[in-house]
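Table S2 (continued). Query chain:
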Amino acid sequence: MTDAPLAVRPAADGDEAAVVALWHAAGLVVPWNDPLADIALCRSKANAVLLVGTRGDRLIASAMTGHDGHRGWIYYLAVDPAHRGAGYGRRMVAEAEDWLRRSGMPKVQLMVRDTNGAVRGFYEALGYAPSPVTVMQKWLADRP
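Corresponding output:
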């Protein structure tokens, strides 16, 4: 492993396979979300960005962020399990928050799946708190 610091940049053409592999390694991929479609949709919008963190030539972290014009969201925060505990997750959250601030968003939200309870402490340590809301959904396309 290289001693290079974490470099953060928007995802580029050719990053897709490494990002999907990272998301699988981090346990973020679920059957009803096609990660390649999520990446393509994010990268096609001006109000969203997929940030990736690299050390040397290896992609080891990600954070997808975007906004709806009222509030920002963070999705797909991932750090390669072999690189956890080095502050890369905190760095990716900070980079996503900075992108949202520059976009004029006064608030950021994220969702944690009930099956991913271990990450709640991570977000709480960064100042995130549960919201007194119920998230509801409706599929507009056929669910995979």
